[in-house]
Amino acid sequence: MKERGPLIRWPRREQEGTSVMPTRTRFEATARTGYAILTLLLAVGMAFSVRRFSSVADAQSERLSAKEREITLVERLHWSCELIVSHGRGYLISGKRDLLTDAEDAKALFRENVRALRRRPLSPTALELLADVERSAGRFIRLQEELFAARQLSEDPTWIARRFEEELRPLREDVELSLVRLTDYKERVVENLYVDARAERAELTLRLYSLLGLLVSASLGIAWYFTRRLGGLYHQVREAREAARKAVAARDDLMGIVAHDLRNPLSAITLKAARLRRTGDSESVRQQAASIEHVAKRMEHLIRTMLDAATMEAYKFSVTPAPCAVDDLLRETLEMFGPLAESRQVRFEQSVNEPDLVICAERERVLQVLSNLLGNALKFTPRGGRVTLSVDREGTTVRFAVVDTGPGIPRENLSSIFERFWKVEAPGERGTGLGLYIAKGIVDAHGGRIWAESEVGRGARFYFTLPVAEPAAHQAPAAEEVPVLSAGIDPHRGG
Known about the structure:
Layout: H1 12-17, H2 21-94, H3 97-118, H4 124-153, H5 158-279, H6 283-313, E1 318-319, E2 322-325, H7 326-343, E3 347-352, E4 358-361, H8 363-380, E5 386-394, E6 397-404, H9 435-445, E7 450-454, E8 460-467, H10 471-474, E9 485-486
Parallel strand pairs: 3-5
Antiparallel strand pairs: 1-9, 2-4, 5-6, 6-8, 7-8
Helix pairs in contact: 2-3, 2-4, 2-5, 3-4, 4-5, 5-6, 6-9, 7-8, 8-9
């Protein structure tokens, strides 16, 4: 026997609703494409911004670092000039040879700094100022060397000191002035670089804000487009839903009318077939009458099922509870399903943990629930299997359990089995897919609860609860008015 698999029969309105799937698929594809483009634009914009900021910062840092190194060389040049002056003056006054050596070392350092500056990419103005420093320093060094030579020939430094003050000091001041001009120029260049860097950053910031504004505008445009599309789809879905609701209502009304009008002709056919079966002249006629009676009863059962489903769908289903003995229900189900179980070679067992239980329910409707559950259990239980109907009292309710040893129900289907038109076909069996739906409606109308538990390969277990009858209800007069309970099933809600 095949396992009870996920072969689901959906209502026609849901099958018709699948026609909108291509539109939904296209819309989702368009939405994903639009958001992918937006994300790509944002990523490219951010990458461009980061790279641009990085390149600008690197270029500015490199330019500033180069100018700062040039200023450092100018300061070294200034310092070497000071050493030339101080060591030279010390030698002219004291005549010490080590001071003369230090002065020569200072001149070498001065020339090295000049060469280092000339190797830099200096502007024409800077080169001219550097040449002015060289010329001033050259005049000073030449006069200083003359004084050094005179100092070596004379022991009296008085006249040499006088020449230093009269001739060498003005030259020193010229060197100092040329160095100051070079230093001032370099500082102005650095200040201009800072100004240019701030202006460049401001321009870059403006461009980035413009890019951000463009991306935000594109985002708003895409959001507006999809909002409009969603609004249009929402109206389409709402209109389709309203049309489907009206179509379902019209269909249910028509089904109720047709089913109701067919009951009387079918009842007449059943009565006449039964009479013909009893009074027929030949065995062939009686067999044909029995077949007609069976078919008519089957049609009557289907019509009753359709009417129950229609009333539940319209929230107009009601029951009339009354005290009902559980033992009578078990005896009648045994009479109904005992022969069927025997013919299928399935063991049918019953158990009750408390005798003389009485529930408050409509007897025929409870039998209808048990018939649906036991019929399904016998349908799916293989030969040699077992179906058990047990009844247990749980406080103020009585719990009925129908347990089989069939193939079981997949866990993902348990939430759907009580929905309208949900069914699984068994070999050689056909149904309407309304049995469990109607069973749930009947139990709900009594204020009870119905549910299922199952694992594939380990059978299925269906449970439902009904209220226990109050003791006073057992002695209620027959003429006393009995309350009518009603309930409906939301066909879109799972069991």
